[in-house]
Structures are given as structure tokens and as C-alpha cells.
Design brief:
The chain has 399 residues and is α+β, with helices and mostly antiparallel strands. 29% of the residues lie in helices and 23% in strands. The strands form 3 sheets. Strands 6, 7, 8, 9, 10, 11, 12, 13, 14 and 15 form a 10-stranded mixed β-sheet that branches. It has a 5-stranded antiparallel β-sheet with strand order 2-1-3-4-5, with no helix packed on it. The chain is elongated, with a radius of gyration of 25 Å. The protein starts with a strand and ends in a 5-residue tail after the last helix.
């Protein structure tokens, strides 16, 4: 850490002191601002100067030794905010919630806590930290180490479960992104999800911007972007084939058990899910349940109850879906910084159904104009998948 308290109660910051850090009297006793335990000034030649607890500590603000990357990241963010005219508080201890923010600053009357996260933590811990900040009206912004961004192929990435809790929303168009930082390059990286076929990976666009050329609004409301090309259309068609042909995946999960019962009512089974289900849409990362399952529910449980050309609203769909969310039949992610995430995911799927001719938008809702026909064989299903793939990927549906 870069801050400590002297015996007289003075706060020492290795980044914000008006004179060179080499002038700090390291013979004086220093104490941790959070737990008041003794800390020492580490004046290494490889790692940057920092304070560290003398012995193994029970300090709640530091469960493990701080890495050089974390120190470097805090230093870059502190310098960036300072050059933008802010007066950030480094390693701000908030006693009312027993939390220490990496940086605290105020913009347009709102106080923000920057959390530069390099190591893995549990999803529960990430959510609790965010909840604690929000309880005192401080808005946390999670910025992850670029080393956490794992690319698995062209446009394909892996994101750990806890990282999703930091997903942010762009107000102008409700697009979502995760924020990463490379301290060595002094660059922000923004990961905008495009599609998520499974809980383990997603397709996304990544944009990099130099830290010191970026306004603070970029990490608060996200920067403007233009969608990249869809280079994973054939991969998605292969994913649909995997869903249909891999029988082992159908067992043991509440969502799959439930939807198989739905298919049984049609004298069918899960491999024969409608070709109109299981397609990429914006905001689909809200669901942990695979898209072909919850989209099949809408096609086979909600729409069949409506006569052709009868208007329905988004609210009607959500009210029908909510019982399955409350009892965890369909699983969703806890994303505290998004507004109406479920509504957005369902809305974008309804719009896709409009594009492929199942629904029409009336301006105040939708009407069903065609019924769904289940495939009679796996070969028939895959043939229909290829037909819709051409319509969806090559006619602008995903733009």
C-alpha cells in the first residue's frame, strides 16, 4: 500500500506527498490506516516503494501480500485522476463499512470507489463489497487486470464468474462492458459482450484506449464504440448442433429438467428444440441458463397461449417468466450495476423474433403472426438452424 499513518496521526502517501519519497523518514513508526497495526516502508530497487505489514496480519483490508501489478495500477489510476483535475483519495478507509477503496473520487456530486482487482475472489465477496459501497451511496467501479482477460480464439473470451458482477452499462444504448487495465501500457480495455453460448465463454468486441487520453466519463458511462464484424457465425451454428446432439448435457439441472417436461407435453424432447430458439442477442449474458432453453420456453409456453394477431406487452412476458426466476428454475446473474437487465434480454429476443417473421411490433407491444413448428428429426432441426443462421447473421439482425 502507498499510505500509512505516523505516530503523530499524520497521513503519509508515497504518491501524493509534495516532496520526493526518498525524503520520507523511514525510521519513524508507521501504522496501517485500516487496522492500526505496525507497517514498514519497503524501499526496494525492483518493486516500487510501498508500505507493508511487519508480520502476518489479520488486517481485513489486506488478506494477501500486494503485488507489484496492483501497486502499479493504483499509481496509474491516481496519476490519471490527478491530471484530470480530481483530488482522489488513495487507499481511502471507510470505517462505516470496514472497507478500503483503492481510490475514492467525486464526479458530478457522485462519489466513486475504484477497485483495481488483480487476483481471483469469490462472487459472494465481490457482491458484498459492491453492496457495502452502495449502502453508503458510494458507486463502485470494478477495473480488472488485463491479465485476467483470457482470449480463447478470434473474438472469443473467457470471463470468471466474479468478474461479471462488475459489468457496467452505457446509458445511451444500454450496452454492457467490463473494464480492464494494463498498468504497464497505461491503457484501458473495454470488453463489450456480443453473445454468450455458455457460462464458460462469450463472443465480444474489445476496444483499447490510452488511460491519459480518456475522460473519467469513459469508466463511469463507457466510451462510444462501433460494433466489430461478426466472425463467429459458423461457431454458433456448431454450438446449436452441440446442444442438439450431446445428450449428457440434458441431465441434472433444474432448467433442463423443467424444459424437458415442457417438450414431453408436445411429445418431443430437448434435442428437437425450435430452430427459432438458441440465437445470440444483446444482454443474453444476464442468463446463466443456456439461451436455447429460456428462448424455447418463450416459444412453447408463452406464445402458444396467445391467438394469432393478439397484442401482448413486454410486461406480460416478464410476469410469466418471473416464477421460474424466483424458484431458480431459470438461473440469472446478479449484476448490481445494470438497470432492468431481464427486461432488456427478453426485449432483444422479441425483436429477433420480429426480424425472422414470428412476431410484429405494434409500437405498443408485439403480435404473433406465425406459429412455431417443432422439427421432426435432428436432420430436420439442423437444416432449419442453417436456414435461420443465414437470415440472422447475414441480414443485419445482430447490428
Amino acid at each position: 500500500m502507498f499510505t500509512a499513518i505516523t505516530k503523530s496521526g499524520q497521513i503519509i502517501s508515497l504518491l501524493s506527498r509534495p516532496h520526493d519519497p526518498f525524503l520520507v523518514d523511514d525510521k519513524s513508526p508507521f501504522f496501517c490506516p485500516a487496522c492500526s497495526e505496525r507497517v514498514v516502508l519497503k524501499k526496494g530497487t525492483i518493486r516500487r516503494w510501498h508500505f507493508a505489514h511487519q508480520n502476518k496480519t489479520n488486517c481485513f483490508s489486506q488478506s494477501e501480500p500486494e503485488t507489484e501489478e496492483h501497486l502499479h495500477g493504483k499509481s496509474v489510476l491516481y496519476e490519471w485522476l490527478t491530471t484530470k483535475g480530481f483530488s482522489p483519495i488513495l487507499e481511502a478507509f471507510l470505517p462505516s463499512i470496514n472497507r478500503k477503496a483503492d481510490l475514492l473520487f467525486t464526479w458530478k456530486t457522485q462519489t466513486f470507489a475504484l477497485e483495481f482487482q488483480c487476483s481471483s475472489i469469490s462472487t459472494e465477496e465481490a457482491l458484498q463489497r459492491s453492496s457495502d459501497y452502495l449502502s453508503i451511496e458510494v458507486m463502485p467501479i470494478w477495473i480488472y487486470s488485463l491479465q485476467r482477460l483470457r482470449q480463447k480464439g478470434k473474438g472469443r473470451f473467457s470471463v470468471q464468474s466474479f468478474e461479471w458482477t462488475g459489468l457496467r452499462e452505457r446509458n445511451i444504448d444500454s450496452r454492457h462492458a467490463l473494464i480492464y487495465l494494463c498498468p504497464a501500457a497505461a491503457s484501458f480495455y473495454y470488453l463489450f459482450p456480443r453473445a454468450m453460448p455458455s457460462a464458460s465463454f462469450l463472443y465480444a468486441d474489445v476496444y483499447s484506449l490510452p488511460v491519459f487520453d480518456s475522460p473519467v466519463e469513459h469508466i463511469v458511462n463507457l466510451p462510444p464504440t462501433v460494433n466489430g464484424p461478426v466472425v463467429w457465425n459458423s461457431d454458433w451454428l456448431h454450438q446449436k448442433k452441440t446442444w442438439r446432439f450431446s445428450s449428457s448435457q440434458w441431465r441434472g439441472k433444474p432448467d433442463k429438467t423443467y424444459i424437458r417436461q415442457v417438450f414431453a407435453g408436445y411429445r418431443s424432447d430437448l434435442p428437437f428444440f425450435p430452430a427459432e430458439a438458441g440465437w445470440p442477442i444483446l444482454s443474453m449474458e444476464i442468463f446463466r441458463t443456456p439461451p436455447y432453453i429460456w428462448q424455447s420456453w418463450l416459444l412453447l409456453c408463452f406464445l402458444p397461449k396467445l391467438p394469432l394477431y393478439q397484442r401482448f406487452s413486454l410486461r406480460m412476458v416478464i410476469e410469466a417468466l418471473e416464477p421460474l426466476l424466483y424458484d431458480n428454475t431459470f438461473m440469472i446473474r446478479d449484476l448490481p450495476f445494470l438497470s432492468s437487465p431481464i427486461e432488456k434480454a427478453v426485449y432483444f429476443y422479441l425483436e429477433l423474433l420480429k426480424h425472422i417473421g414470428i412476431l410484429t411490433n405494434t409500437g405498443s407491444g408485439w403480435k404473433k403472426i406465425n406459429n412455431i413448428i417443432l422439427p421432426l428429426s435432428l436432420e430436420d432441426a439442423f437444416h432449419m438452424d442453417k436456414k435461420w443462421s443465414s437470415n440472422i447473421f447475414y441480414k443485419g439482425t445482430l447490428d
